[in-house]
């Protein structure tokens, strides 16, 4: 009987040790994995930009950002519709003059300087700038490398793309102005999918 208990204790101890090593390995993997952006010292605040449903308007969001930027140690602020790791809506996006060249793409809406706050790497083109009419009018878009690869774009910047918006009940036509290095915005076990990012403060949630 005693020998059986010893064997059981040994097996349980071995299982606990192996489980601990696996968990430790997973934690080290998560800490060392290059996510494609800097998540250290990032703080997010949930906002509801629609004043019609008791939220706050765009100007109030800008005021909040201004107040945060007055705090010593705050390097910068931005506003986004989605956070990496969260839920992203998708559209079937196609090259405007080649509707057969299409791809399901995740969407994200941001304010200026989002790439600086998240430390995203811009590999081609430029960032959003409200001084450009195409940006302030919501006619430009920034995509990731997976977008370029999946749609077989030889020269991404300047390419016109489109999708049908259920929210706006019309077709959206935009021009690619920049390409970001791929970043993980979905669980790490999933491949990085195409994402299209637009300048649109009225659609942000954080």
What's the SSE blueprint?
Blueprint lengths: L1 H31 L25 H12 L20 E6 L2 E13 L3 H5 L3 E4 L7 H4 L3 E5 H6 L9 E6 L4 E11 L14 E5 L7
Parallel strand pairs: 2-7, 4-6
Antiparallel strand pairs: 1-2, 1-5, 3-6, 4-7, 5-6
Q: Mean pLDDT across all residues, rounded?
A: 79
Q: Which residues form runs of ≥5 with pLDDT under 50?
A: none
Order of helices and strands: HHEEHEHEHEEE
How large a portion of the residues is in β-strands, by DSSP E? 15-25%
User: Number of helical segments?
Assistant: 5
Biggest sheet details: 6 strands, mixed, barrel
Features:
6-stranded mixed barrel; 206 residues; 7 strands; alpha+beta
Description:
This protein is an alpha+beta fold. Helices cover 28% and strands 24% of the residues. It has helices at residues 2-32, 58-69, 114-118, 133-136, 145-150; strands at residues 90-95, 98-110, 122-125, 140-144, 160-165, 170-180, 195-199. A six-stranded mixed β-barrel has the order 1-2-7-4-6-5. A hairpin with a 4-residue loop joins strand 5 and strand 6 (170-180). The mean pLDDT is 79.
């Amino acid at each position: 009987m005693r020998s059986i208990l010893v064997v059981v204790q040994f097996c349980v101890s071995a299982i606990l040790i192996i489980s601990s090593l696996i968990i430790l390995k997973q934690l080290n993997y998560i800490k060392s994995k290059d996510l494609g952006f800097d998540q250290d010292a990032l703080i997010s605040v949930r906002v509801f930009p629609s004043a019609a449903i008791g939220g706050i308007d765009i100007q109030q969001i800008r005021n909040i950002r201004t107040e945060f930027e007055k705090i010593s140690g705050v390097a910068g602020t931005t506003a986004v519709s989605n956070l990496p790791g969260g839920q992203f809506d998708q559209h079937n996006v196609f090259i405007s003059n080649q509707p057969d060249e299409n791809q399901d793409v995740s969407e994200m809406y941001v304010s200026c300087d989002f790439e600086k706050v998240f430390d995203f790497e811009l590999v081609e083109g430029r960032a959003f700038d409200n001084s450009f009419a195409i940006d302030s009018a919501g006619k430009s878009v920034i995509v990731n490398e997976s977008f370029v690869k999946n749609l077989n774009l030889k020269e991404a910047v300047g390419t016109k793309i489109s999708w049908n918006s259920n929210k706006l009940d019309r077709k959206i036509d935009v021009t690619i102005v920049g390409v970001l290095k791929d970043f993980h915005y979905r669980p790490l076990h999933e491949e990085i999918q195409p994402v299209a990012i637009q300048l649109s403060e009225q659609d942000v949630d954080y």
